[in-house]
Amino acid sequence: MLLETFMPVLLPLISGILVLLARSGGLELQRLVSLIAVVALIFVNLNAIQIAVQLPPQVYALGNWIAPFGIVMVLDKLSATLVLVTSLLAVAALWYAVRQKIDEQGSHFHVLFHIQLFGLNGAFMTGDVFNLFVFFEVLLLASYGLLLHGGGRLKTRAGLHYVSLNLVGSTLFLFAVGALYGILGTLNLADMAVRISTLSPDDQGVVAAAGLMLLLVFGIKAAMFPLYLWLPQAYANTSAPVAALFAIMTKVGLYAIIRIHGTLFGENAGDLAAIHIPWVLWLGLITLFLAALGAIASRHLREQVAYLVLASVATLLIGIGINNVEAMSATIFYLIHSTLIAGAMFLIADWIRQGRGEAEDQFISAHAMPNAIVVGSIFMVGAIAMTGLPPLSGFIGKLLILSSALTHPQFFWILGVVLVSGLLMIIAMARSGSLLFYNVLPEEKCHTIDGKEVCKTPKTLPLKGAASVIGLLSVAIILVVFAKPFHAFTDSAAAQVFESNLYQQQVLQIKPIANPLKELVE
């Protein structure tokens, strides 16, 4: 039982408290503490992923209470990957917020930022269903504050939709958890899986209904059809660094489907095995097609990027729905790529919004923006990565998912929807680039006043936070250059996901830490 297993959850909580205490020292001190804490979190998560690679799933029992009676945190390759991706995204989003002074626009930005990380990492590492609910609520409460950071009519309207739908989701989550506890008598994930494997036929209907209700809840978090309508407006209208951080939020829902449904309804679940898989696959296909149409119909760039995030979620759902080790490996590979690139695209969209004056990032003609060549080039790299075109890593991820589906009965549906949707997204991004960078209004650079020629001074757009954008986009190249070792890692992580017996054994057979003072007390 290693304390390092718990550190990715503990550190953001401590950081949030420290940032709150630093408030009396001013914003600069809060920024310093906040940045140091997020960078430290990266090193903690690198250590966590090293442990996950070298050892079987590691379990930390809070308060030395062993499973299934106590709260446990479980570190395996999948959860370690997700907490590392979260911290990389967080440092980029936070640096952009500081450089652009977006954190000045409201109160408690840094505190909410770290509490959000606490909720995210907790959700990725918890070993029981009720604490997954608790961490969901923690991250949602923080996200409500971050979503509305800076205020504004559009943010408030999108926030109300977001809050309302998630409150419904939380209520359904409690109903499902109550039903499962009533039948199984436990909420520890490993223990629940053991009890489902020996479940009487009379109780299977209730457990199946609760499992599908949980799928509905996770579908809301992941923005799965028909529950995705909250995402485009919420992501498009919040501030850029918050939208970038929210790129990982939908992955919490996907992770919950992989972890909860994959463990409870795995191959040992008898008649209940894989009851969620057909739903996930078909709803993923529908979501992908509608997301591509949404990208075509978008009226401004931030909305289009939000629909592209939705498309990436749908692609991951398809990978989960194919339901084999190769598809899970491809899903993890594409998840890393799509999350970080989506974060970069929200930041690029913010530069474009700043540079186009009153036209902002709407798809209408406007005067040429400053630094158009530089910003346009970066936009093109992001668009290639986001739409999954070669030679960047999005292409590899999609190719791996399609390759894993070759023997699937629904292969031609998967192939058709992925290819058609991909084509629509390429058309959407090509049209956006043309409108934003080539379809510009003529502008008089010089004019004559009293016989003298007066020329305007060229405007410049300070690309503050460029390190965040370049750092996130570089992932699309790094994943290509080191594709073989990365793919080998995702293969092993995927194989571990399907080893539900190993997960159960590690959680249920954990030994409490011996107390050296016990004999003295007695």
UniProtKB/TrEMBL annotation:
InterPro entries with a match to the protein in the record: CPA3_Na-H_Antiporter_D, NADH_UbQ_OxRdtase, ND/Mrp_TM
Topology term for the membrane: Multi-pass membrane protein
Compartments it resides in: Cell membrane; Membrane
Membrane-spanning segments: 6-25, 32-53, 65-97, 109-126, 132-150, 162-184, 204-230, 242-261, 273-293, 305-325, 331-352, 372-392, 412-441, 461-483
Signal peptide boundaries: none
Domain NADH:quinone oxidoreductase/Mrp antiporter transmembrane stretches: 127-418
Keywords associated with the record: Cell membrane, Membrane, Transmembrane, Transmembrane helix
NCBIfam families assigned: PRK12666.1 (NF009309)
Similarity comment text for this entry: Belongs to the CPA3 antiporters (TC 2.A.63) subunit D family.
Name of the protein: Monovalent cation/H+ antiporter subunit D
Organism taxonomic ancestry: Bacteria, Pseudomonadati, Pseudomonadota, Gammaproteobacteria, Thiotrichales
